[in-house]
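Entry type: protein chain
Record version: 2
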Amino acid sequence: MPLYRDEGVVLRAQKLGEADRIVTLLTREHGKVRAVGKGVRRTSSRFGARLEPFMYVDLQLHVGRSLDVVTQAETLGAFARPIFDDYALYTVGAVMLETAERVVADEREPSVQQFWLLVGALRTLSERRQDPGLVLDSYLVRALAVAGWAPSFTRCGRCGEPGPHRAFSVAHGGAVCPTCRPPGSPAPAPETFTLLAALLEGDWETAGESDQRTRREASGLVAAYSQYHLERSLRSLRMVDRDAHAPRPVGPGPAG
């Protein structure tokens, strides 16, 4: 069987038999891959702990008929322990993994931008650089933008009329002008549009200056926008505690 190497983030792990595990990975060069880690649930396994969700690893795999087989795994980013040890980080990270698996729908279709976006977001989350809710919302809007559903927070999402605008429509791509505004559209505060634009652009200085009321309103809009374009709800999103805070930021936000 042919061998190949790649870097990957473990999105999901499922038990198989008495000692094996099926892992779903988002890899840099091969997109989404499902593979078997043989014997990784045994205490004597050389790399079982490296095939847990949130781990960023360098892998060697055999190509299989339906599932590939992991033969080597080396840690590149040990994000699992700090994320698992903090419930607020874990719930946010779970949404990221679920979103990544959803937006990269087809297996073995390379999605390099999605891969690096996820790695950067998980690193930021595990190192507690920013409020976890801000990291999540930034990841969601940027992942959707990479997938082809880029929201607009400064121009009308329907006609392109320059803003600022006062209304928001998930079906029309974000901010909407008075002419394009559907009946019943919410009217977020101007500060909320400023925060959303900052999260999309990775402007962490502006995002960090926002207050909790603005963050909660932005989070509701991001959740609605994400679930509309992903066509069904993110199951892990309901677990997120939006009032949870990470320690004071000590560095920049996600790369990319």
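Comment: The longest strand covers residues 3-16.
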